[in-house]
Amino acid sequence: MTSFLVFIILVLVGIAVWQLTKIFDLTQIGGIAEDSEIANDKDNSVNGYLMFAFVGFIYVFTIYSLYAWGDLVLGTPASEHGTDYDNLMYISLAIIFFVQTITQFLLHYFAFKYRGKEGQKALYFADNNKLEAIWTIIPVIVLAGLIMYGLYTWNNIMFVDEEDKQDAIVIELYAKQFGWEARYAGDDKTLGKANVRLIEGVNTLGVDLADPAAQDDKVVTELHLPVGKKVIFKMRSQDVLHSAYMPHFRVQMNCVPGMITQFAFTPTVTTADMRADQAIMAKVDKINKIRTEKSKKLVAEGSTALDPYTFDYLLLCNKICGASHYNMQMKIVVDTPEDFKAWLAEKPTLAQQWKEANAPAPAASEVAPTSVDSTKVVAQVIK
Amino acid sequence: MSHDHGHHKETFITKYIFSLDHKMIAKQYLISGLLMGIVGVVLSLFFRMQIAWPEESFEVFKIFLGDNFAPDGVMRNDIYLALVTIHGTIMVFFVLTAGLSGTFSNLLIPLQIGARDMASGFMNMLSFWLFFVSCIIMICSLFVESGPASAGWTIYPPLSALPQAIPGSGLGMTLWLASMAIFIASSLMGSLNYVVTVINMRTKGMTMTRLPLTVWAFFVTAIIGIVSFPVLFSAALLLIFDRSFGTSFFLSDIFIQGEVLHYQGGSPVLFEHLFWFLGHPEVYIVLLPALGITSEIIATNARKPIFGYRAMIASILAIAFLSTIVWGHHMFVSGMNPFLGSVFTFTTLLIAIPSAVKAFNYITTLWKGNLQMNPAMLFSIGLVSTFISGGLTGIILGDSTLDINVHDTYFVVAHFHLVMGISALYGFFAGVYHWFPKMFGRMMNKNLGYVHFWVTAICAYGVFFPMHFIGMAGLPRRYYTNSAFPLFDELADVNVLITVFAIVGAAFQIVFFWNFFYSIFYGKKASQNPWKSNTLEWTTPVEHIHGNWPGEIPEVHRWPYDYSKPGHDEDFVPQVVPMKDGEEQLHH
């Protein structure tokens, strides 16, 4: 089937080339015979008009794209700095759009307007300091504005004030091929020390359980955040580079083996509220329509149908990290502070989990007669 | 270099294979670059097919990727990453660095400055053959059983250092590093040669401010290469040490596949710094020659002086200088100090100024011209168009704040493909159409050239413009399939459209290849100066001779852009024409 399609495409391409050269050939009638590989007036004219048509193509394609794909972009930002981010983005996009529209027009219009004609002479115009000063200074002013606005926002996002630190909660994001875990620092707001050399059994993060700060740490595989509270993320990776990407919050930071990186932000919209957002609801509807169509096909082929989609915040890996890079994700839930507290309270601390797993339980000998090799357990978890 | 050239007997081997003649070496670079280009583009079609129709079985995969890489015609997920990696490496280094610079620097520097050959013909030959060896090694790596290098063209460790992390980091990565090390040696030899030749071997009257902008671009590009390529070499060397000899330059605290590795104290961020110290200037190593070629072609075909010659040189120099202090904009979210991010945002956005000057100067050069729409001219105008479209989004990516959410998404893919990929490729095509008569003594078919340009122009926008939208939708690049996230289901149609444009665009490159190879043998015979150009290369005879000019090297009396100068009958005044009495001299 594919080879047939490829064959058809090749034939069509061949016909297209043949026809197009024909068109250009027809414009040659009356041209000079001897040096016909050099553009003559007819070529200049045809290609000049095509240049003008091309700027039309750029405009139409841009408008079509905005119309057809404008709603694909991420909707309402779900974090405090996300609003500043989006404002800066819209201003930059507006400037880009404006400059693009004008310069592309001038370029292609001049290419059309001044297309060559026999006997026409170009203007000998080699320099003009005033003009060049103008188009040096205008970009300087515009960029100075963008740089200052950008750096102001950057500093606000990246540097956490001391007083904010007092009130914030601290969470470690832990990346490995190909999954995420999160560790809550607990009431002491201090994460226990950790090193990959301490990874053993249920202690998949290599937390130093002798560290007093580690006693109330909790490790989970689904990230919950309280709305309206600053969260300071400390990122770690156990094997290769990963990147913690949370597009709805306008957040991204690499996870680097051997060092701890940081990103802090305040979520502002709970998952429940976001699901009720107009734009998000429209998006979910659209996606579910696509999924129903696909499911019909799948069911007809004898496979199982796709689950319907409900909106959730996501953490994605956004730095190439290995074969299954494309499927390294974690669900993020933004709760009300009460729900968050209740959810976290239910989770056992790592110290408790460790104690349970390593308790000299008599039942262990019934299930597994030989002792469990801890590295194998870890390997299982990693897979 | 004064002993007589053109009189010694040449055999087939000294003429066509181990040639010392810069014109033959240029052609060798051109043909190798084009062949590598075919490989690079075909690989990209394969992974585009996988993205558009994820995990479907294709006959072509069975044939070209085989049972190992594509069991039952379905591409393996790590092979997807391998194809992405090798596509990037081949296009950036082998096609747009060696293919573009190697071809046109070699061809044009001696011809346009009035020299008999490069400063060192032997080193020039060595440079090409090292490049050829690195091509062979890179192609061989495609046939390694565990797969070619798969860590992305940026080969960030630890992924690139640990075969446990991805199979491609085994023998495939070793070959990649070997190939690149040889490639860098080749590139350095070429660059040193270009710099020395431009400084020392200009003919009488050819002052620096009478050099064509092509030569300025090649000259500055070579300097950037000399400054930055050795840093990549050191990075590659340290990575080889980490991989093979157990050092820990880039690796620390790693636990993989159930065991702790011994590495301690290294930093992957250090590698990123070393890599991008070349990696960013590399963008300009690719782009500046294309801009130089465009300057020359636009002026010649507009029959007008290039507008703001000195400003063009100043912006080339400014871009070159700034390009070496902006590498950190690839690392805003790498975990480096946010204060550094501020510095790099500042320097990065500054590059927009000389770039804007160049774009406006090109547009002004067209104004009130008498534009000869040869295929080379179309590609040059196309270059300015994609350079603007792609360059403008750099304002977003160069801004550390905005980079946070579009970093490593398809927005980046759209940006750099337009601004350096397509633009440089257009410069390459423009150069081939324009100097084909100089290289082969024959003309390429212009109608095929027109078809080639218009279809390519539409497809290039068709492929890369929609990527901005899926990037802003948060779609990460280098994903084998997007089906793991229901969120991205609505992007599937856009991805199909992109792939269709890519396939059509690539198919039409066959028109170019046909035109190119057919015209070498059967094209119409070229006249000595078909485009009525001012520069020195068109004063050489159509038939190539060793030493370029049969008699004395011509003397230069004026700058290269006296087109349509009042007081002259013709609309061009070659550089060899002496000044008339009382004629105003623009550049000395």
Automatic annotation (TrEMBL), chain A:
Domain Cytochrome oxidase subunit II transmembrane region profile: 66-161
Catalyzed reaction equations: 4 Fe(II)-[cytochrome c] + O2 + 8 H(+)(in) = 4 Fe(III)-[cytochrome c] + 2 H2O + 4 H(+)(out)
Keywords attached to this entry: Copper, Electron transport, Membrane, Metal-binding, Respiratory chain, Translocase, Transmembrane, Transmembrane helix, Transport
Enzyme Commission identifier(s): 7.1.1.9
Family, per entry: Belongs to the cytochrome c oxidase subunit 2 family.
Name of this protein: Cytochrome c oxidase subunit 2
Cofactor: Cu cation
Taxonomic lineage from the root: Bacteria, Pseudomonadati, Bacteroidota, Flavobacteriia, Flavobacteriales
UniProtKB/TrEMBL annotation, chain B:
Keyword field: Electron transport, Heme, Iron, Membrane, Metal-binding, Respiratory chain, Transmembrane, Transmembrane helix, Transport
Domain Cytochrome oxidase subunit I profile: 12-577
Location, primary (coarse class): membrane
Keyword Membrane appears in the UniProt entry: yes
Membrane topology, as annotated: Multi-pass membrane protein
Pfam families to which the protein is assigned, alphabetical: COX1 (PF00115)
Entry's transmembrane regions: 29-47, 79-109, 121-144, 175-201, 213-241, 274-295, 307-327, 339-364, 376-398, 410-436, 448-474, 494-517
Record-linked InterPro entries: Cyt_c_oxase-like_su1_dom, Cyt_c_oxase-like_su1_sf, Cyt_C_Oxase_1, Cyt_c_Oxase_su1_BS
Subcellular location: Membrane
Family: Belongs to the heme-copper respiratory oxidase family.
Name of the molecule in the record: Cbb3-type cytochrome c oxidase subunit I
Lineage summary: Bacteria, Pseudomonadati, Bacteroidota, Flavobacteriia, Flavobacteriales
